Amino acid sequence: MFSSGIRKLEISASELSFENDSKKILKDIRPNWDADKISFKLFTDGLSNKLIGCYLEDDRNDVVLVRINGSGSEIVINREEELEAFGLLSAAGCAPPLYCTFNNGMAYGFFPGVPLDVETVREPKIQRLIAKELVKIHKIKGPSQVPLKSKYKERVLSWLDALPSHYEDPLKQLVFEKEIPPKAELKNELEEIVRTLEGLNMDVVFSHNDTLLKNIIYNEQEEKVNLIDYEYAFYNYEAFDIGNHFAEFAGIDDVNYDLYPERDEQLRWLKYYLEYKYEAEGSPAVTDEDAERLYVQTNKCACAAHFFWTIWALIQGKYSLINFNYVQYASTRLTEYYRKKKEFFSLELPR
After folding, report:
1. What is the DSSP-derived secondary structure letter of residue 223?
2. The pTM is what?
3. Which stretches does DSSP call E strand in the chain?
4. Which of 146, 182, 203, 274 is the most buried (most CB within 10 A)?
């Protein structure tokens, strides 16, 4: 097991003393650093955790990220599975090195570049790079010889079991009561989603599962992209990463689902993906039928992604201390799920 070989420090970091606690961690993993010369940059974009970058002013090429796990995040994230995923991705060159864990977080390397936004994600050259990186991730093989099975249903069911029944904040509670169906109805929706996905004959691959724009880092100098944040990585349907990514074209700070890519843009993107996939497999050229099949699978998976993040956000709204309106976000994702469900679920695979 990869996680058993990772250095574990008996340190608990606090947001109130983040820099000082980070120095204690750096003393172990960067013993040659002068503590008085360490600079820090707090990252504020995360929706699950607190993150700080640590570096020396005269060597900004060596940045260590120290992450404090978010309050209540263990309800939605299996930290042992995250470490295993991190190890697989790092060994394949798809994740930075993991230096250590500590009682409530981890420290790891840094991918230079800038996160994508609603404009850059539409640039064809960047779309091609994203497709290439996803193929690389999807080709990762784990140690198990057991036939692969999607963990989508298992993960969402575990979240539904942990779903709050009430929120102390009256505004959250109002949205919850008015806009979120009862748990039994949500479970019925999950069963319908799973039946739909199981009928698509999709490959199951090692998946990132959180391909939102801020998790995709573009390095212009090297002309490549890297995906970051591997907390939700597990074996899943191949098209889930793509459908989830298309849904994230809407952004997150000011969500606009009118930005969901139209059919022509999707087909261009999907052909990029299939070209890299077939090249890796030594398969024949991509056909229009291949792209159409993946198009149908991808859009159905986009609905599955909306539902996935709906349930996640309802739990985060109960326990997270991050300043974000999770319950309203859950309502927004669920509304889009229902809005697109009939259209996308009625799509038929090419014969």
Report:
1. T
2. 0.93
3. 8-9, 38-43, 50-56, 59-68, 98-102, 105-108, 114-115, 204-207, 216-219, 224-227, 234-237
4. 274
